[in-house]
Every structure is written in C-alpha cells, then in structure tokens.
Automatic annotation (TrEMBL):
Its cofactor is Mg(2+). It is found in: Nucleus. It catalyses: a 5'-end NAD(+)-phospho-ribonucleoside in snoRNA + H2O = a 5'-end phospho-ribonucleoside in snoRNA + NAD(+) + H(+); a 5'-end CoA-ribonucleoside in mRNA + H2O = 3'-dephospho-CoA + a 5'-end phospho-ribonucleoside in mRNA + H(+); a 5'-end FAD-phospho-ribonucleoside in mRNA + H2O = a 5'-end phospho-ribonucleoside in mRNA + FAD + H(+). Belongs to the DXO/Dom3Z family. One of its GO terms (molecular function) is mRNA 5'-diphosphatase activity. Keywords: Hydrolase, Magnesium, Metal-binding, Nuclease, Nucleotide-binding, Nucleus, RNA-binding. GO terms for biological process: NAD-cap decapping; nuclear-transcribed mRNA catabolic process. It comes from the Eukaryota. Residues 45-380 form the RAI1-like domain. GO terms for cellular component: cytosol; nucleoplasm; plasma membrane. This is Decapping nuclease. Decapping enzyme for NAD-capped RNAs: specifically hydrolyzes the nicotinamide adenine dinucleotide (NAD) cap from a subset of RNAs by removing the entire NAD moiety from the 5'-end of an NAD-capped RNA.
Amino acid sequence: MDSTGTRKRSAEKIEVAEPQNKLPCSAPSLSTEPALYSGSFPFYRRPSELGCFSLDDKRQYYGDARALRYYSPPPTNGPSPNFDLRDGYTDRYQPRDEEIQERLDHLLRWLLEHRGQLEGGPGWLAGAIVTWRGHLTKLLTTPYERQEGWQLAASRFQGTLYLSEVETAAARAQRLARPPLLRELMYMGYKFEQYMCADKPGGSPDPSGEVNTNVAFCSVLRSRLGNHPLLFSGEVDCTDPQASSTQPPTCYVELKTSKEMHSPGQWRSFYRHKLLKWWAQSFLLGVPNVVAGFRNPEGFVCSFKTFPTMEMFEHVRNDRDGWNPSVCMNFCAAFLTFAQSTVIQDDPRLVHLFSWEPGHPVTVSVHQDGPYTFLPTWYVEAMAQDLSSPPKTPSPKD
Ligand code: A3P
Ligand code: MG
C-alpha cells in the first residue's frame, strides 16, 4: 500500500483499499460450508514452472535440480512387484527434524534470487500471493475436512500477500505423541519413492541406500485462481523421462502408498477421502498422474495403479457423499479474497492469523511483532534495498 491508500494489485490494475481506520462492526469470518461454494469451476491458470530448488541431506538449499529423481518403475511385463516398505526403517532412516519450523524461508530465498527475472512485469509480484502448495492443498480440502484444523499466518509486504502455516497446538501434540506404527507408516511412504526412482535418467532405483527425508526437490510455479495471481512452491517426487511431454510440470509424477483394498466399500471410502487429498495436491501443481503402490498388511507393495489427476473426480461424481472440485477451488478463491481484504496494512511484522477448526468458520486474530511474524529480516531488508537504491544507470560497457 502506498501513502495514498492504494494497493497495487498488478501493473494494469490498481485497487483502492479500505481506509485503515474503518473497522468492521463484528469480527469478520468465513464459512466453510460446501453448499456455499458449489457454483461453476473458477478460472485456474495452467501452472507454469518458473524455476526450482533442491534441499540436500542436511537440508541445505541449492538453486538447482540436483535432488530431482527419475521415475523408474519395474518393467510391466516382469514379475509383480514385491517391495518391502519396512526395510531399512531401523537402520537406514534419517528423518527430517520436524521441530525446525522452516516457514517460507526456502521459497523466499528462491524469490530473492529470482525477483529480477519474474515474468509478468515488475508489478506482478506486488499483486501476487506467495505460499507453499501444501498450504493451498489444505485450503482446497477444507470444506470436506472433519478432523484437522489449521492456522495460516498472513503478512503483506510491498503489496504481496505471504501465507505461511502455523502448526496448531493439537497438531503439535499429535506429532509429539505420534504412535510408533504411524511413524513407520510415514517411513513406508518415503521408502516407496526409493523403490520407484533413480538418481539419473535411465538409471535403476537403489533400495539398499538410506532414506533421508531432508532431501527434497521443489518446483516453483506461477498460476492464478480467479483474480488472484499465485506464486507457490511444492515438493515433487520425480520426473518421468518417458513422459510424452518433457516440460514441467507435466512430466512430473506423484507417488503415493495406500492400503490394499478388497471390497467395494473400501474403494468407496478411498475415493471419498484419500483421492480428494491426492487430487488437490496434484491438481494445484499441474502434475498429471499419481502412481499408487498398494501395500498388504505385512508392508509389501505387490501392485500399482496410475490415477490420472483429471479423472479422479469421476470416481465420486455420482456419489452424494463425494467431493466436488468446484467447491474446493471456489472455497480457496473465497479464502484468498477474504485474506486480501482483511490484510490491508503493508507491514512485514504484522500478522493476521487465520484459524479454522472443523465445524466452524475461519476466524482472524491480529498480532504485531510477536512470535507469529514469519518474514525473515534478511528477506525484508534485501527487498527494501531494491526500493531505496536508485535505478542502475547503464555504464558505457553495458
Ligand atoms: P504416502 O502419502 O505415500 O503415504 P508425498 O506423498 O506428499 O510426496 O509425501 C511422501 C510421504 O510423506 C507420504 O507418503 C507419507 O509417508 C509422508 N507424509 C506426507 N505428509 C504427511 C502427513 N501429513 N502425515 C503423515 N505422513 C505424511
Ligand atoms: Mg508422494
């Protein structure tokens, strides 16, 4: 927001923000009732990849694709797979330290290093929303979620709205008390990735190695939901060197594990609950296929199935207790509009905390300079320098 009270939303469009001293009569909130969001599917720009970064086995950042892995499933004409997902759990597992809250830091580092090269013109970022794909996934599934609430911290800085998840007290308590069986199940999801991916194109997976969940390859994408320009990043499991399009994100593959199913009732429940989460995660990033490995009670994957992201909804289209992509996307758009109109003041140390619990509307609280502040000083100072330093005059050699 500048001194005249106008907030630059994009190069072309300038919106007048509400005066800062005009407070609403009652605290604003946003309903999450699915029936309110069942209109037609909103505009969602095909996500395009702006860049990527990698995190190594010590969670160190690299501005390249070194952690990208290559989809390498067993041959379809060979024996059926027999992947032991428990192998290595006790002796070859380096789990990431979940106590370390990274917030948006890695994405902000990428943004700082590429802010001068963003497509869409110099004003584009000022009108955009910057966040993780995982946070948007939670928004998409909110109208159908009955168990886990969330909190999203929001700050406006140089026009841009940044959204960063805050772990709820309940989620933290659950994480700290995670039962051993659930810990092992988490490992098994990562172990499946190791069975299905090679480090080099044309290479073979090496399941004898360690599973280190610090390692990550993240794609950074641009999209738009309704009139909300988006810049977000998401972790990508692998790329398919054989995919018909070699262009990201359409060459990417999402890997998942799930329990083997034996009855129509089990499949129905899978379509209603798990497929919704898989769809939301992959649709946002433009990943065309999710490859599921089905594990038996002993923890072995003996079969796969590919679920094309764009066909997932078909499994619940005629199910009264199913989910609807329009509801997910319309709710997300409504939340972004709500956040954009609530967070007016441009101040990187001011946080509007959006909180949601199942069965309730989304509510907001305001926090200045407190523990919720998430935009790091190194980011704020470097971005502020851009505005204060005079434009570079080309030297005769340029
Ligand atoms: P599965 O989903 O196959 O079980 P992702 O699929 O998003 O790439 O995540 C890889 C694995 O991380 C998951 O594999 C799961 O084991 C673990 N994981 C991801 N998100 C999780 C969550 N919210 N709770 C527990 N485990 C999670
Ligand atoms: Mg996965």
